[in-house]
Every structure is written in C-alpha cells, then in structure tokens.
Amino acid sequence: MTDNAFEYSQAMLQKINPRGFRNLVDAFDAAISAYADKSAFSCLGQTLTFAELDRHSRAFAAYLLRDGLQPGDRLAIQMPNILAYPIAVWGALRAGVVIVNTNPMYTEREIRHQFQDADVKALLVYEACLPVTAKVAGELGITRVIVANALKADAGQQLPDECPETYVTLSNVLARHLDQPCEPTDCAMESLAVLQYTGGTTGPSKGAMLTHGNLYASAWQTTSALDENERNDGVVIAPMPLYHIYGFTWNVISCCMNGVHSVLIPDPRNLDSLIQAMKAHRFTGFAGVNTLFAGLMRHPEFDDIDFSALRGSIAGGAALVSSVAKEWERRTGTLLFEGYAMSETSSSLTCNVPTAHQVGTVGKPLPAMQVKVIDSDGEILADGEAGELVVRGPQVLKGYWNRPEESVAAIDRDGWFRTGDVAVIQEDGFIRIVDRIKDMILVSGFNVYPNEIEDVLTAHPDVFECAAIGVPDERTGEAIKVFVVAAGDSRDTDSLREYCRKLLTPYKVPKYIEFIDVLPKSAVGKVLRRSLRK
Length: 534
Prior knowledge:
By secondary structure, this protein is of the alpha/beta class. The chain contains 17 helices and 26 strands. The chain folds into three domains: about 5-350, Rossmann fold; about 365-435, Luciferase, Domain 3 (Luciferase, domain 3, Roll), CATH 2.30.38.10; about 440-530, 2-Layer Sandwich (GMP Synthetase, Chain A, domain 3), CATH 3.30.300.30. The strands form five sheets. It has a nine-stranded mixed beta sheet with strand order 2-1-11-10-12-13-14-15-16. An eight-stranded mixed beta sheet has the order 7-6-5-3-4-8-9-19, with helices on both faces. Helix 3 (about 50-65) packs across helix 4 (about 85-95) and helix 8 (about 210-225) crosses helix 10 (about 245-255).
C-alpha cells in the first residue's frame, strides 16, 4: 500500500471510528461490556454468552502468548462452524496473532500450499481433519497443534491415540489458562489481522492481507444495513462457512460487535439439520448463497418454519437468480437482498437494503465506499456503460502476502482496487455485475480457478492438455466443465474425475469432462477459453 492509499484509508477510518478504538479488540471489549449476559453464539444445542466468549478467548490468547507465539505469527484455523471458531478468532486477535482461515475440506496438496505460503507457526484443527492435516503439519514442522471437536470448547476432550505428544486439546488449553491475566497486544488499525486466501486466473492461491482496520470498517459498513432492533436483539442463522470471508466477517466480526446472536450451522449441506435449527430459533436474519436458498425451498419441511420474526435475508457469494428471490419472498413474506463483495474487500462492497432495493442488481455501494467503472485504458466511463469495476474504501485489502508485484497491479497509488469484474453503474446508483474479466468459476459461492484444475488434470498420464470453464448450473450457479485432449487412446471420464477427487476439494471436481481433438488457441499459443464457452 502506497503512502497516498494508506493516508486515505486512515482518514476514512477516523471518520467511522468516533469512539477512537485502537483495534478490533477495543471494539470487541466494548461489545462485551454492552452485551455480557446475552447469547453470542449457539451450535448443536449449546450456547456461549458474550461474557463466556470473552473469558474463553482471553484464555486462548494467554495460551498462544505463553506457548511462544509472537505478535504477527500466523495461526491456521481449520474447522467447520463450531463454538471453538469465534473463541479462537478473538483470542488470536487479542494476542496479535494473524489468522489464516483454512477450508476443512481441503486436500493435502491445497493445505500444504497454504501453510507453506503463510509460514504457519501454529494450527487449530478440527479433529476429523487430522488424518490429512496432521501429515502436512508434520512435514512442515508445525509442532504447535491444538485439536478441537464440536462439543462446547471447555468440555472434556481426549486426543486421538495417533497424535504426537506435542499436540494438545482445546478444552485442556482453555482449562489451564482460564482467568489468567492476558493483556491485549498493542495492535493498531493498520496491523495485519487475517490472511484470507483467494486466487487468480493465473498462479497459485494468494493471501489477501486484511488489517484490523479493514475488518472494523467492514463491520461498520454492514451494520448500516441493520436497524437498531436488529443490533440489539437480532438472531441470525449462520450456515455460511466461517473460513469463508462472507461468514467470517458477517458472523464472527460484525454480528459479534453488534450484539447479534449467531446460530452456527456446522454442515449446511445437511438440510435436515439446518431446517431443524431454523425451527428451534425465532430468527431475525439469514445469510446464504443462491443454491442454499433454492435447496431449502425444495425441502418438504420448509413451509413449517416460523418466518414471522425474519426481517430479511442476504444473498451473496454468487449471483442471485431472480426466480429464487421471488419464490423466497412469496413463501417467507420477506425480501431477499443481493449483495456483492470479495475477500479483497473484507466481504463488504455493495448491497441491496430495505430502503434501497432493486432486483437484478447488487445494490448501491455501502457507506464510505467509492466506485467507478473504467475502460481498458483506465478512463472513467459514464453511467450505463459497461467496464471494469474499480473500488476504494477503508475495507480494501492492504495487499497480497509476499506478492508486491501483484499488489501493485491490483491497487493503485491512491488506493483504488481493480475487481476484475465487468459492471454497469446505473443512473440511479444501483450496480449490475455483467460479467467477469477473470476466468474464475463460481461454484456454490466458492471461487474455482481454471489453472488449478488444469494443473491437476494435465499431470494425469492420459491427458495431453486441457482447459476448464464454467457452465450454467441450476443447483450450483456454475459447474466446472473441462475439455480434454487425450494423450493416448483412453477416453475414460470416470477415472479422470476420480483422480480429481483425490487432489481437489469436492466443489472443484469437474462435473463435465469432454474429449476434443484440439484446443482453440491464439497465435502465441494461449488457450482461448472464450471460444470454448460458445
């Protein structure tokens, strides 16, 4: 981040931080003071109050600092949505430790890249992930490993027999450090808080550097969409994974700072369990992706849910299908608000809100945001013209971890971030996302990058070369289709798909594989994915 961009970000933060919080922990402490006896998080029939969250997160912070971690060291958190997650996040932030959110479904290859790139010093891992993750941790020399399960974090827990002696359970960590003094590390708003791994159409996945100030700004911006009652007595169902920037910023940061009770859903794919959680709570808010809303409405018990307290639902992560939005409104009596953001903007950018809502758009920019659309020469386009969406605000990333050249390419000296998405800013201020400049594929709200799929498949002996694209899919928004040029006589699509399952997270496995004789290429040999989409 250049001096100009830094000065702009700091000036904006001062405007939206009237209480003068030095960092996220200051804001968290204020929330604890205001909401101590209220429920903060629930999961699988267990609940943490704000006071309990504070006590347990302080214990986790004390452990991290006493176990030798230094402010700025990286802690990978690899868990589903369970109570241990917010405890670990607020404990790490209090200790000044940088969080590396890690998908629990990642394969060994994906985990290794992320841990190596972030230079992870410690790991908090869900017990069920150990067979894969422990192997990588051992190879990389990560000895500080804390193991969690789905029980309440302070409940008795035993390590699996195969764990090394250096491993510890989260319940034992908390029991040994409860009520021990733990002064928060003196972090500033510009201090690094999270490495949120995203990706690009070329090269490996990279870590978006999000600061305390970025996340504070995002929480402040999303709060603007809540009315006063929602901030004080809100109950939200939280199926979005906390390791994803959407669930992380909304539930762990914003809702927590505003006294909102989040009901964590460990496995949103289990619609039976999700439906039961929705029946058990008189919830006021819900956030998900298009495919989740569509799946819920196909469930036979959906209409048995009490929606009388629901004030609205937010759809993000992928484009919202208008027919889904209309059916949701008809059956629940509430609006479904589409928003748009990305990891690089701390999950805040634009959103439809009750006072400004237009179907088919992603809403207007959130407060403290500036947006413009530019052409290929960087010239600003008029309203109604399609071009690349460029944004500026206090929630925009500091840069990419250990990638200065990519940081400079993405963020200019004045702090404008190039989204890589084609958009139209309408005369009324609403924004429509038209297309993507990048070749990223969105599967159920998750980013999939063609190069990664192609790198895996071209290592197979039966594949000479291949190209991956996204194709429309009613269930997942987009599905992955791979065009393959065979290296020999074999044309076995099932074996190729099974090969991918061993090396890729399930949502990255191609749904369609088609063999062709030759890939369309430019004069310099670049594969023309655009031609494959026709």
